[in-house]
Design a protein that fits this description.
single chain; 605 residues; alpha+beta; Penicillin-binding protein 2a (Domain 2); Beta-lactamase; 2 domains; 5-stranded mixed beta sheet; 5-stranded antiparallel beta sheet; 21 helices; 19 strands; elongated; EC 3.4.16.4; peptidoglycan synthesis
């Protein structure tokens, strides 16, 4: 018998080696597959995975830039951008920590339900503003709570040092620092600049952990130098405010132009608003009445009518007109003067502000000629100052005139204009008949246009000087040491197809009249206290503003004789009073100014 079979050791050893080889081959193939996959990911399809990674962690964020500074003509800042902080949050991160929301709401100063609703509405977003354009210290206090998903970023906010005094000229910007009104809107593209952009890596909490590269450098906005003089601007604001208070008027405007260049040196409106806190401000207070609101110019049109008659060769300065008996029937209407002035020459018509005289001047003028002449001074067309929303006024063509239109236009009814248009026309009279479009930018001089012969403009200017002298309707506009040329205008306000017992008082003047530097228009609407005549309401505002403006701008006097005479009278009175004083005289020099003189019958007729 044979014994049991023995196991084959060589066969067992061979199987073990085979298995090890199989495992080794499998591992080798896996390694090759991994290396191949890695090569594919890193080399072949790298862009795709790079984009996927960047989508999760790389962000392109804006680099804020400051808005250009606005300065007055002397380089004083009137609109500047100051750095502020805006607090923002990641709604996805915040909603994962609802227990921290009450604390965040208290820090932000908002109701919890409002914050929760806002975050819930943006639950699929990664960005939401929580509080914008706040003081950096306030933002720091909010971030100090360390609420997950809350961050801050730098922005800029506009600040207006002059406040209400320059609000209507400058306008304001919105929360995104875009111009909304005034010159901020007109020059928005120039001032705004271009924000930059950079790529950063954020962690899962939204924090920036690395700046990758600069995509686009920020370009700050360009600065803008205005023609406005902030000193004259404030003078006009102060005096207009005082006048509105004293006369209980509803609104008013003041415009000051440089006669030679057309530059706007001051433009003020009341009521005004605070451009640093626009929210809640009534829309009615935000418009620039000096360029948007229309008024019937009233008797301020009479110098233009005189110029038209002189230019047509129908009259001379010595031509006389009989205005007896102080009234004139015109159709079913009666035109009146304030008094019966009898026979007047052309200068007398301007001095006494005779409505009848103005009608007689315009009567022989052809309709088309009179229309074209008035339009040549800028009435009926926008001044082209570049200010947003400037009105063109109303000047009907002759085809739409009735039998009364030319006559009423001669003394300032039946057409309308803005205070800026009136100032532009008077600046033309002071600039030897040359009309220059107004500008708000220092150094920008627009091409002049000859509206009337220089000698005629100079003649009319001399006539207007009598308005502020004894016997004229605006003695309150006289300025010691200077000749003043001007004209009052007291017009009833249109209402319901007729005219109400409410008035717009206007004074337009040039100073010094021998070589005009300033053309100034003062318009005050609906005075309710005391007189409503322009000579007593608007003319004193002109005088107060111009007295200081002439001094500030170093304009030499052109009426030295009157100034010396007043000085001598004041010195004589001072010397006469010396023996009566027990102590040293307190020299105030108050009596060197002309005392107020009320015109009999008051102001403009």
């Amino acid at each position: 018998m044979t014994g049991p079979a023995r196991p084959n050791r060589n066969r067992s050893a061979f199987n073990l080696r085979g298995r090890m080889l199989l495992v080794g081959v499998a591992l080798g193939l896996c390694s090759v597959a991994l290396v191949g996959r890695a090569a594919y990911v890193q080399l072949v399809n790298a862009d795709f995975y790079q984009r996927q990674g960047e989508a999760r962690f790389v962000r392109e964020i804006p680099i804020p830039t400051s808005r250009g500074m606005i300065t007055d003509r002397n380089g004083e800042p009137v609109a500047v951008s100051t750095p502020v902080e805006s607090v923002w949050g990641n709604p996805q991160e915040l909603l994962r920590h609802p227990d921290r929301l009450p604390e965040l709401a208290r820090a932000l100063g908002v109701p919890l339900d409002q914050l929760t609703t806002r975050l819930s509405q943006r639950a699929d977003k990664e960005f939401v503003y929580l509080k914008r354009r706040i003081n950096p210290d306030q933002a720091k206090a909010i971030l100090a709570h360390n609420v997950p998903g809350v961050f801050s970023q730098r922005e800029f906010r506009r600040f207006y040092p002059q406040g209400e005094a320059m609000a209507h000229v400058l306008g304001f910007t919105n929360i995104d620092d875009r111009g909304q009104e005034g010159l901020e809107l007109a020059f928005d593209e120039w001032l705004r600049g271009k924000p930059g952009s950079k790529r950063v890596i954020r962690d899962r909490h939204g924090r920036i952990v690395e700046n990758i590269d600069l995509v686009r450098a920020a370009e700050p906005g360009k600065d803008l130098t205005l023609s406005i003089d902030r000193r004259i601007q404030f003078l006009a604001y102060r005096e207009l405010r005082n006048a509105l208070t004293a006369h209980k008027a509803s609104s008013g405007s003041v415009v000051v132009l440089d006669v030679a260049t057309g530059e706007v040196l001051a433009m003020v409106n009341l009521p005004s608003y605070n451009p640093n806190a626009v929210t809640g401000t009534a829309q009615d207070t935000q418009r620039n009445r000096a360029v948007t609101d229309l008024v019937e110019p009233g008797s301020t049109m009479k110098p233009i009518t005189v110029a038209a008659a002189l230019n047509a060769g129908k009259i001379t300065a010595a031509t006389r007109f009989d205005t007896n008996p102080g009234t004139m029937a015109l159709g079913r209407y009666t035109i009146r003067d304030h008094h019966n002035y009898g026979v007047l020459d052309v200068t007398g018509i301007v001095t006494k502000s005779s409505n009848l005289g103005a009608v007689k001047l315009a009567e022989p003028l052809p309709n088309q000629y009179f229309y074209d002449f008035i339009r040549g001074f800028g009435y009926g067309s926008a001044p082209q100052s570049g200010f947003p929303g400037e009105a063109a006024g109303v000047l009907m063509p002759p085809a739409r005139w009735n039998g009364l239109t030319k006559s009423t236009m001669a003394y300032g009814y039946g057409l309308s204009a803005t205070p800026l248009q009136i100032a532009q026309a008077y600046a033309a009279l002071g600039n030897h008949g040359r009309v220059i479009a107004p500008t708000f930018v220092k150094g920008q001089i627009n091409e002049p246009r000859q509206a009337v012969a220089p000698e005629i403009a100079d003649q009319v200017l001399a006539m207007m000087q009598t308005v502020t002298e004894p016997g004229g309707t605006a003695k309150q506009a006289a300025i010691l040491g200077y000749h003043v040329a001007g004209k009052t205008g007291t017009a009833r306000q249109a209402s319901g197809g007729g005219y109400a017992r409410r008035y717009t008082t206007t004074f337009a003047g040039l100073v010094p009249s021998t070589h005009p530097r300033f053309a100034t228009v003062v318009v005050i609407n609906d005075p309710q206290a005391g007189s409503y005549f322009a000579g007593l309401v608007s003319a004193p505002v002109f005088r107060s503003v111009m007295e200081d403006a002439l001094r500030l701008m170093d304009v030499p006097p052109d009426d030295i004789e009157t100034w010396l005479a007043a000085q001598a009278r004041g010195e004589a009175r001072r010397q006469a009073a010396l023996p009566k004083l027990p102590v040293a005289l307190d020299e105030t020099y108050d009596d060197l100014t002309i005392p107020p003189a009320m015109a009999e019958g008051g102001g403009d007729r």
